[in-house]
Amino acid sequence: MKVGRFKQWAAGIAAMALPVLAFAQAADPKRWQLNMGKGVTAQSVNAYEAHMLALWICVVIGILVFGAMAVAMFKFRHSKGAVPDKDFTHSTRLEIIWTVVPVVLLVAMAFPATSKLIKMYDTRNAEMTVKVTGYQWMWKYEYLGENVAFTSRLDRKSDEIRQSKAIPDAAQNPHYLLDVDNVLVLPTETKIRFVITADDVIHAWWVPALGWKQDAIPGIVNEAWTDIKEPGIYRGQCAELCGKDHGFMPIVVKAVPKAEYQQWLASEKAKNAPAPAPAPAAPAEPAAAPAEQPQPEGTTPNTEAVAAVAVAG
Ligand SMILES: [Cu+2]
């Protein structure tokens, strides 16, 4: 019995300690992950650091408050002969302390958080821009100025499993509902600006490893930026309930080194380039020009202009 009670306590304490022990994890969220991920961009690391600062401040406050309660309850209990102080009204010194300390803590957290937030919204000096448009239920990506654009929707495999109503096997399909047909290829070590909008209802573009999510709203263009440090595949999802297939419009970002990105971009451009014009045929014999007809005075002899209008029409 006593061993059982001890095990219960140990399990309880371990469960409480887990959020503190769970340090930054891999780029993409994992099953049963408790702490937020550190991500792969400067912004995501900023967000992680602001979060950890707040978390540790909360941990210290929690230990102090619950520790004081525990001391009060165990040391000054009735069975030990403690007598309540019925004349106690207030202590000016204590009131000053518990007003000033939280204010100092809030300011200490607000300063780094605000400066990081301002950086997050500074999309200046971006080296390239990708326009993201949300649709029910897929994403469209346009590499502005590059003549490269495509849509990205749930991959066929996930869709088949979904339609079959079979229970998906996580081991066999680790990226069930998190794969797409066309991934968004981006260069690493590049400041990339996103302009994000939607064509029907509100969606939200969210890749946790990049450290932010941004609403995609019809008629409004929102901005965001990223600078991915590590090559890799980062997955995300629509983060705004947008209709019946909201859960089936994942996002896959493939970050590759700059040179590889340039190769990919060139191959995409080649796909989109208009078919080369056929080789010019041998010039045909010019038709015999009709004999000049004398034009009556005042009429328009400009047959070229008439022909041009006819072609244009
Ligand atoms: Cu959506």
From TrEMBL:
- Coarsely, its chief localization is membrane
Cofactor(s) demanded: Cu cation
List each copy of the Cytochrome oxidase subunit II copper A binding domain by range: 125-267
Source species of the chain: Lysobacter arenosi
Q: What is its EC number?
A: 7.1.1.9
Q: How does it sit in the membrane?
A: Multi-pass membrane protein
Record's NCBIfam families?
CoxB
Which region ranges are annotated with the description Disordered? 270-304
Question: Where, per UniProt, does this protein localize?
Answer: Cell membrane; Membrane
Q: Which residues form the signal peptide?
A: 1-26
Q: What is the name listed in the Swiss-Prot or TrEMBL entry for this protein? A: Cytochrome c oxidase subunit 2
Q: Where is the composition biased (Low complexity)?
A: 284-297
Coiled-coil intervals, chain numbering: none
Similarity comment? Belongs to the cytochrome c oxidase subunit 2 family.
Q: What does this protein do?
A: Subunits I and II form the functional core of the enzyme complex. Electrons originating in cytochrome c are transferred via heme a and Cu(A) to the binuclear center formed by heme a3 and Cu(B).
* Keyword terms: Copper, Electron transport, Membrane, Metal-binding, Respiratory chain, Signal, Translocase, Transmembrane, Transmembrane helix, Transport
